[in-house]
Design brief:
The complex is a heterodimer of chains A (236) and B (672). Chain A is built from six helices and no strands. Chain A has 236 residues and is mainly alpha-helical. The termini of chain A are far apart. With 672 residues, chain B is an all-alpha fold. Chain B has a domain of 284 residues: Cytochrome C Oxidase, Chain A (Up-down Bundle), CATH 1.20.210.10. In chain B, 68% of the residues lie in helices and 1% in strands. Chain B contains 19 helices and two strands. Chain B has a two-stranded antiparallel ribbon. In chain B, helix 5 runs parallel beside helix 17, helix 8 packs antiparallel against helix 11 and helix 11 runs parallel beside helix 14. The radius of gyration of chain B is 25 Å and the shape is globular. Classes of the chains: A mainly alpha (236), B mainly alpha (672).
């Protein structure tokens, strides 16, 4: 039932139409792993399945988009509740912009080192990949510790999440980001172990790519959070 | 040590849940015992439980959906019976139990009946229709399924350990806050939905990536079968909507567990924010369920009318329009919130706009049938029944979309009748149409026609008998979720509706009989060719059931109906195309990651419900360890040698050639 032999091009044959480039796609193209041709196809339709690298990266992008939607729900809740302080402290009373500036620096610097790890793994340098990942992890840990310090300071002042709807939304939004950083650190640890023991196998390189995307996405969310929560909050 | 869990959690004083749980327990033990005694455990473990094959996972999803639909239907019978007898009396269900039943009915039907059924169909069919060998992330697919099963297990556990929520299928605060629902009911709801929601989200990511990135050569977007289009849109909606549900339920959980004030009456909480957030997920959810159903009908109507789908491109546009517009109507679930005339009018108009897209679809189905050679098989009957039910249910929906009318009908039985009319007519009929249509592809034999048609007629008659009276009661002012009432005018409608549910029960019995009879007569119903319906899309070019790798060589797609074209060419020339060159195929290895992760997720969920903190932490750590071990694996694929591929595919070609030889003369005459 395979069609390639009996096919005659019709008169209005258009070589640029989708699916017309038959010669490069003979019967044998399906030989690669579960439906992946492994070729240069981008998966835009005409060329057959995309390569595993494209598929993994694309799937992870979609996950990141869904994660950002989840954050947007927390942002929306924060926007609704940020004036509902129930006569308690406001952001202006609570936020210490200096500490937040240090936090932000740590996270932005960790994004830079994370980018360096991707450069190092492109060059297949195991040592420098590990060094860059380690720096990323340490900076992420510093960020997380500063955030925990901020949380515990606030709770000690009686400004915990139970105090008001504003503080509930604040702790949930910032805490959700912190939880993501924590998960990222766990992931980073397993990635370092994998690179150390197994080296740059294709699927490990794909995972490093995904980790990079994840870490940068957390940075982007932090930039929004820094603006919406801390800058606007401490100004009002 | 065991948190809030004590012996009192088991409702010793309530015979109904105890007996029901005992029955389910005995049934479950009997099935497990039978499997063990027959020695099927290794087979089940190897071929199904650890399988990462999209077809197997699709079948398991669908099976879960069927079992949960029956479970939810039992709740429906109990509710109709209660309202039929509870006129100026307490009925037979105490209020706290009745409240749990309507909550469990909605939760189970939507999250664990309809969703797994539809995801199962998409999982099974989409890669086959796209002409490829698997979904993008096969192991993730298995994890998704088992997490959904884990959620279903937790919901059903609440029947006998503790209680379920009494808050309706969407736990509106402040009722669901710890002040007014101090028990574990809402916690069961929250954790079951969170766990299965993660599974659904991953399934959505998986299918979106599959459809957008993994298609046979030549299959551009406008050559994808309609079912793939509707699946794409449904899964885009999953990816965009389920994170909102996760966030909303997380906020409710923080309120309940840690004393946050998102939705409380005190300290500045805003309960209407919950309704906005939950319906920002909830309305797209309606289309997540509906769209795959519409896709099934597109395939079924086109196949059994013997014509290509009418207006393919307008169908694609209408699907995309529903996908987009479905996100802009959520406020119509609470026009009575009081957001003012302008806001209500805007949402009323956006809601009405949806009906244009659905109208396009209905007309396209009718024009596909017009002038076609219609075969009234079971799937086709479900499709025609859908058109009738959907048009009537849709029109009552347009009524509800008008804010002044909605102020009268809000929260009434009219609303209940409307959404059951639409959801049963589209989602459930679509699920059954898809089941009977693709069953031969999955198992190699057709389902019994006679019992299938009986099931349709009982369900169709039952649908009207149950819900037309509810429309009337709603118009007479009856609100939903009443444990008892004392208005004599409503009573006849409630009795009629209870009679209707008995008719519907007839439909359920016919469905089960159909399965039993078909399995018993499977040799007479055997489908040798792989194409029992003379169908049009690529899944029918494979044998039934398809081999693990689906396609020995990847098909080359040249138009919207590639398989129809291949078939016509073969019939004209009276022979198949040349034998292709076979190459070895790499397939993903099976993995127990899914079932192990889900086991730990269930343990964690149960521990969180009952505040057993050490167990929750242990479960999380174990789930993380599972993930690390899985990531550590060295071999994730195995090779099927070219000779084996050739052997399997030559068998397929031989059966096709035999069919051609047997029917060749008749076709030649027809062509002449």
């Amino acid at each position: 039932m395979n069609s390639q032999a009996t096919f005659q091009p019709p008169l209005d044959y258009d070589p640029y139409k989708l699916g017309s480039n038959r010669k490069q796609r003979g019967a044998g193209i399906g030989g690669g792993g579960h439906g992946h041709s492994g070729g240069e196809a981008t998966g835009h339709g005409e060329g057959g399945p995309a390569s595993p690298r494209v598929i993994v990266g694309y799937g992870f992008w979609i996950f990141l988009l869904s994660d950002i939607i989840m954050f947007s729900a927390f942002f929306a809740a924060y926007a609704v509740l940020d004036t509902r302080t129930a006569n308690g402290p406001t952001g202006h009373d609570l936020f210490d912009l200096r500490r937040v500036a240090v936090e932000t620096s740590c996270l932005l610097a960790s994004s830079f080192t994370c980018g360096m790890s991707s450069v190092a793994s492109d060059a297949r340098s195991r040592l420098w990949t590990e060094v860059a990942l380690l720096l990323t992890g340490l900076l992420g840990l510093a960020f997380l510790l500063l955030e925990l310090q901020e949380f515990s300071d606030m709770i000690r002042q009686g400004a915990g999440p139970q105090r008001s709807a504003f503080l509930s939304a604040f702790f949930a939004l910032v805490g959700c980001h912190g939880l993501h950083v924590f998960a990222g650190l766990l992931w980073l640890g397993t990635m370092m172990a994998q690179v150390w023991v197994k080296g740059f196998r294709p699927h490990i390189v794909h995972r490093l790519l995904c980790f990079n995307l994840f870490w940068h996405a957390l940075d982007i969310i932090w930039v929004a959070l820094f603006t919406v929560v801390y800058l606007i909050g401490s100004g009002s | 040590m065991l948190g809030k869990l004590t012996w009192d959690a088991i409702p010793w004083d309530q015979p109904i849940p105890l007996i029901a749980a005992a029955l389910i327990g005995v049934l479950l033990l009997a099935v497990i015992g039978w499997v063990v005694v027959k020695g099927y455990v290794p087979y089940l473990w190897r071929e199904w439980i650890t399988s990462v094959d999209h077809k197997r996972i699709g079948v398991m999803y669908t099976l879960l959906g069927i079992v949960m639909l029956i479970r939810g239907f039992v709740d429906a019978i109990m509710m109709r019976a209660q309202q039929a007898v509870a006129f100026r009396s307490g009925g037979y269900l105490p209020p706290e139990h009745y409240d749990q039943i309507f909550s469990a009915h909605g939760t189970i039907m939507i999250f664990f009946g309809a969703m797994p059924f539809m995801i199962g169909l998409m999982n099974f069919v989409v890669p086959l229709q796209l002409g490829v060998r698997d979904v993008a992330f096969p192991t993730l697919n298995s994890v998704s399924f088992w997490l959904t099963a884990s959620g279903a297990l937790l919901v059903n556990l609440s029947l006998v350990v503790g209680e379920f929520a009494r808050t309706g299928w969407l736990p509106y605060p402040p009722l669901s806050e710890v002040t007014y629902s101090p028990g574990v009911g809402p916690d069961y709801y929250v954790w079951a939905i969170q766990i299965s929601g993660v599974g659904t989200l991953m399934s959505g990511i998986n299918l979106v990536t599959t459809i957008l990135k993994i298609r046979a050569p030549g299959m551009g977007y406008l050559r994808m079968p309609m079912f793939c289009w509707t699946s794409l849109c449904a899964n885009l909606l999953i990816v965009a909507a389920f994170p909102i549900l996760t966030a909303t339920l997380a906020m409710l959980t923080l309120d309940r567990y840690l004393g946050f004030h998102f939705f409380t009456n005190t300290a500045g909480g805003n309960m209407m924010m919950f309704e906005n957030l939950i319906w920002a997920w909830g309305h797209p959810e309606v289309y997540i369920l509906l769209l795959p159903g519409l896709g099934v009908f597109s395939e079924v109507v086109s196949c059994f009318s013997g014509k290509p789908l009418f207006g393919y491109r307008s169908m694609v546009l209408a699907t995309l329009w529903i996908c987009l517009n479905g996100f802009m109507t959520w406020l119509h679930h609470f026009f009575t919130m009081g957001s003012g005339a302008s806001v209500n009018a805007a949402f009323g108009i956006s809601t009405s706009l949806i009906s244009i897209a659905t109208g396009v679809k209905v007309f396209n189905y009718i024009f596909t049938m017009f002038g076609g050679t219609i075969r009234y098989t079971t799937p086709m009957l479900w499709a025609i029944g859908f058109i009738v039910a959907f048009v009537i249910g849709g029109m009552t929906g347009v009524l509800l979309a008008v804010p002044p009318a909605d102020f009268q009908l809000h929260n009434s039985m009219f609303l209940v009748a409307h959404f059951h009319n639409v959801i049963i007519g589209s989602v459930i009929f679509g699920a059954f149409a898809g089941l009977t249509f693709w069953f031969p592809k999955a198992f190699g034999f057709r389902l019994d026609e006679k019992w299938g048609q009986r099931a349709f007629w009982f369900s169709f008659a039952g649908l009207w008998l149950v819900f037309l009276p509810l429309y009337m009661a709603g118009l007479q002012g009856m609100t939903r979720r009443m444990q008892h009432y004392d208005v004599p005018e409503w009573r006849p409608w409630m009795i009629l509706s209870a009679i209707g549910v008995v008719v519907m029960l007839g439909g359920v019995i016919c469905q089960v009989t159909q399965l039993v009879v078909s399995i018993r007569n499977r040799d007479q119903l055997r489908d040798e060719t792989g194409d029992p319906w003379n169908a049009r899309s690529l899944e029918w070019s494979t044998p039934s059931p398809p081999p693990t790798f689906n396609f020995a060589t990847m098909p080359n797609v040249e138009n919207e109906e590639p398989y129809w074209q291949i078939k016509q060419r073969a019939m004209e020339s009276q022979q198949l195309g040349d034998e292709p060159h076979y190459e070895p195929i790499h397939m993903p290895r099976n993995s127990p990651t899914g079932v192990i992760t889900a086991f730990f997720a269930t343990v964690t969920g149960f521990a969180l419900i009952w505040a057993i903190w050490w167990l929750a932490i242990a479960g999380l750590v174990a789930a993380f360890a599972t993930f690390v071990v899985f990531a550590w694996r060295d071999e994730n694929e195995y090779e099927i040698p070219a000779e084996e591929v050739a052997h399997i595919d030559r068998h397929r070609r031989a059966t096709r050639q035999a069919w051609l030889d047997a029917n060749g003369d008749a076709i030649a005459k027809e062509v002449a």
